[in-house]
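Hi C.,

You asked whether I'd gotten around to modeling the 232-residue construct. I have! Everything is below, sequence then structure, no commentary in between.
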Amino acid sequence: MNKRWRNAGLYALLAIVVIALATAFFDKQPPSREVWKYSQFIQEVEGKRVDKINITSDRSKALVTAQDGNKVIVNLPNDPELINILTKNNVDISVLPQTEEGFWVKAISSLFFPILLLVGLFFLVRRAQNGPGNQAMNFGKSKARVQMEPQTQVTFSDVAGIEQAKLELAEVVDFLKNADRFTAVRAKIPKGVLLVGPPGTGKTLLAKAVAGEAGVPFFSISGSEFVEMFVG
């Protein structure tokens, strides 16, 4: 019980870290802004409708603040008259420092430690799942052998000396072969048949004969293999 609660706590913590990573990533994304053409930008400047402009250090882009407070992006060409036009129209000019970090640099630096924690939790959960107490969940590693008819090639004629058992199991075979006839009258098949006896008395052979007579899959697994899944 304690181990199950510990695994549940690990998964809950893992989910919290994933949500925190997603929140941090989307919060860091810059808001989308309107983009002006350069000709439109010049018209707005000459029309006295631009208050401030922030130009990047390489003079390739600018963040323009209009008189109504709206902020837009402008891709700047190599125009030597731009500064004169801005100065003539009393536009406040500022240049962003070259050391300004980009969006991805900020995002990676802010997500480094959460990602490191996420990787550590991943390996911790994997280690907990591969522990000896979780072997019961590894049903895919079961050593059960599936034998399909006609691989068994065993029928009641191959079993001798237990006529009474074969007679009783004939009803099970009849139900497996003609299930529709029994379900039509709402008859129910037994949940199982328990064969009891010391080793070597033909219990497994009789079970194979039932599968062979009915033409259904035969599943075989020993008791030691079944217990091994739970106790290691």
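If it helps when you're writing up: The mean pLDDT is 75.

Thanks,
B.
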